[in-house]
From TrEMBL:
InterPro entries named in the record: DUF677
Main subcellular location: membrane
Annotated keywords: Membrane, Transmembrane, Transmembrane helix
Gene Ontology CC, one term: membrane
UniProt family annotation: Belongs to the UPF0496 family.
Name of the protein: Uncharacterized protein
Location in or out of the cell: Membrane
Length: 112
């Protein structure tokens, strides 16, 4: 679990270094979180009798999964925001290209 957490953090840190968060790095982080959750579930199932008997352990497990769900919700919202930003950037680039093309036509039209 510690290795997966370190991997997630380093993936995010790499995105920060280049001042960009790509869909690939977001996908990798999400996959790591899901894999980590699967491993935690295995541990919980192996120790379920001890967890059910101990209220503090039970609450810790509940908190872990609640935080995991919130983290995945955050990743989903981040992905949605990245998609909107990408789509907006593409719209701006297309609009600029059309403006440049129209400007060129207006400049050249007196000569035609």
């Amino acid at each position: 679990m510690q290795a997966r957490t370190s991997h997630v953090i380093s993936t995010l840190a790499t995105g920060v270094e280049v001042r960009a968060l790509s869909f690939d790095s977001l996908k990798e982080v999400t996959e790591c979180l899901l894999e980590m959750n699967q491993e935690v579930v295995k541990v919980i199932l192996d120790c379920k009798k001890d967890i059910w008997k101990n209220q503090e352990l039970f609450e810790l497990v509940e908190d872990y999964f609640e935080n995991s769900l919130k983290t995945l919700d955050f990743c989903a919202a981040l992905e949605k925001g990245l998609r909107i930003a990408r789509d907006s950037q593409l719209l701006i680039l297309v609009s600029l290209q059309q403006f440049e093309d129209e400007s060129l036509v207006e400049v050249l039209s007196p000569f035609c």
